[in-house]
Amino acid sequence: MNTIAAPRSSELDIIIRIKKYAYLLVILPSLVLFASAWLGEQYGYRDVFAFTTVFFVFALVPIFDHIIGQDPVNPDEETQVPELSKEVFYRILTLLCLPMQIATILYGGHVFMNGDLSWAGQVGWVLSVGTIGAIVAINVGHELIHKDPIIEQWAGGLLFACVTYGGFKVEHIRGHHVHVSTTEDASSSRFGQSLYAFLPHAYLHNFLNAWKLEAKKLNRKGKKLLSFSNELIWWYAISFAFAAVCGVLWGWVGIVYFFAQSFIAFSLLEVINYIEHYGLHRRKLENGRYERTNIEHSWNSNFLLTNLFLFQLQRHSDHHANPKRRYQVLRHHEVSPQLPSGYATMVVLALFPPLWFKVMNPKVKAYYKDEEHQLE
Fold first, then answer.
1. Which domain holds residue 50?
2. Residue 9: how many CA atoms within 13 Å on its side-chain side?
3. Model-level pTM greater than 0.85?
4. Domain presence at residue 239
5. Signed CA dihedral, 122, 126, 128, 129: sign only
6. Number of folded domains in the chain?
7. In the structure, what pLDDT confidence band is assigned to residue 2 with cuts at 50, 70 and 90?
């Protein structure tokens, strides 16, 4: 199934050890944010430096993605996957992202209020903090909510609460993973659908569907929707508690800042959703049901640098085929549909629908050769 060139066993072990600590790159966007504020203080041009993190993620990372190239590591399913899955380091790293995200939001609020920024600089700063929220709160939260230990479940929920998107914890597991790549899933973009047509529907449907799914769960247990048993109430209450802290520290502008960075973070999440499943579909069987989700129903990207930043989220095909698999053992499948670049590049491309369609529509059609009629 895999045609990726495999290094020799000794080389593979060395690369795996290097990758283990290379996942620490997740802290780099926050460090860039702190550095950009310092540079603004030292050299002026605060409004320009406020955009540094956005420039780093969506301009520099795509360039280095293609310079560094593809990830040569595919852990062996029978030997390395079980061993790597047991290593505690990988779990600790994801859990430490929670205090890092909270610190980033608080520091971001301090600079937003006291950094002598114009309105343009404040926009750039919120975009930068929100971009970090997408990388840390959203992405790491996504990793954690798929795991069984209660500490990881709670850490994942709290990370989503940091960006006011607690409903994702419910809808993603019980909705998206059930209906992915079908018309019933608002997080699976359709062939020919622009990002700007996709986003409003995704925002609304995913919020409402989370409440519907939670209501069904509580109803089965004989409990009411408006009760302390409803986890959505807890996550959104925690989000408003974060907003209240920002309000105490910086007044109503602090509250605006908190919800603004949240909006950027969860919007980037939905942009990634748009990218991950664009134009792909699960075929309907004779019994009226959809075929089982497999590695053909998500776009895959094997660019090493972005995969390190995103804890291998781009090996999304394997994630949907094996949802509980930990990030360090996600595998690349050559037979999965392949994106032409990493997510950082594809996000920029998706913002310009004509360019997106020009690049991606031929790829979708090529993947479904002789089945093009199903794309309409």
1. 9-375
2. 3
3. yes
4. yes
5. positive
6. 1
7. very low
